[in-house]
Amino acid sequence: MKSLFNLWLLFAVSLIIGACSKENPTNPEDNQPKIELFTFSSHNTDHQAKIRLPISYKTNQNLPVIFLMDTTEPPLFETGLDEFEKVTAAVYTIPKFDAIVVSLESIIEKDYTRYDSTNYYYVLFNDLAKYVDLNFEVGSSKTLIGRGNAGGMILLGLFQESGASHGFTNFVSVDIPGSAISLANQTLISNNFPASGKEDMKLHYSFAGGHQVDQNRAVINRIQNNNYAWLTFESEEYPSLTHETVYPQAYKDGLAFIFGE
């Protein structure tokens, strides 16, 4: 009789547990990062973008935001199709750190010989940052990251940045083309760019082995010699890596420089 009672008790408990689990089902997606697509406006045109919200976003609405500028590459170089994933992977390598990653949904078609469109894309990403600020709970830290053509626009954009802009403060520029290196050297020689309002900015500049070594080193030396009070600077040369293989490591090192302790 006692054993029968125990069986009934076990059956009743299992029913209660089953009812509770139906009322509070566990959704496996709740324990996964989420990628959302959205539309924002810039230059009187709608643009598609994507945002990766990590699991920690549920409890931390002060996460930094990393904006990937992803462009096509010059002839003879392969355009990376996994840069969004590599930025995300780089975030995971930093201890006790997490971040939101944002980019345009499609890769930017960029003519590597022309940088007169730099301001267009810089405004585009400022408008993207404004949208993210208004529609997601995020922190104030904003980073621009990219390689090749994008890295060139990011480097040149840094010197266009002023206190009146939307506030990118961190920049990771990887293995930029020769045309962008020449423009950067001209800009640094002339010092003809806004300096007022700039403060607490960081730049990580890197390049692959055998790629415009002397010109890249000239950019690095000029930045170091100019000793900008508003800029914390680090550079890295990767002799054993190529343009196609450098960005995963450069993204890790760049983000570690910016966010690592």
The fold-level CATH name is: Rossmann fold
The tally of strands reads 8
Q: Strand-and-helix sequence, N→C?
A: HEEEHEHEHEHEHEH
Tell me the count of domains: 1
Please give the CATH class.
Alpha Beta
Report mean pLDDT, rounded to a whole number: 81
CATH architecture: 3-Layer(aba) Sandwich
Number of helices: 7
Oligomerization state: single chain
Write the layout of secondary structure elements.
Elements: H1 2-23, E1 34-42, E2 45-53, E3 65-68, H2 83-92, E4 100-104, H3 118-135, E5 142-147, H4 149-160, E6 170-174, H5 178-190, E7 201-208, H6 213-226, E8 231-238, H7 246-259
Parallel strand pairs: 3-4, 3-5, 5-6, 6-7, 7-8
Antiparallel strand pairs: 1-2, 2-4
Helix pairs in contact: 2-7, 3-4, 4-5, 5-6
Could you list some keywords that capture this structure?
single chain; 261 residues; alpha/beta; 8 strands
Description:
The protein has seven helices and eight strands; from the N terminus they run H-E-E-E-H-E-H-E-H-E-H-E-H-E-H. By secondary structure, the chain is α/β, with parallel strands linked by helices. The protein has a single domain (33-259), classed as Alpha/Beta hydrolase fold, catalytic domain (Rossmann fold, 3-Layer(aba) Sandwich), CATH 3.40.50.1820. The chain has an eight-stranded mixed beta sheet with strand order 1-2-4-3-5-6-7-8, sandwiched between helices. Helix 4 links the parallel strand 5 (142-147) and strand 6 (170-174). The radius of gyration is 23 Å and the shape is globular. It starts with a helix and ends with a helix.
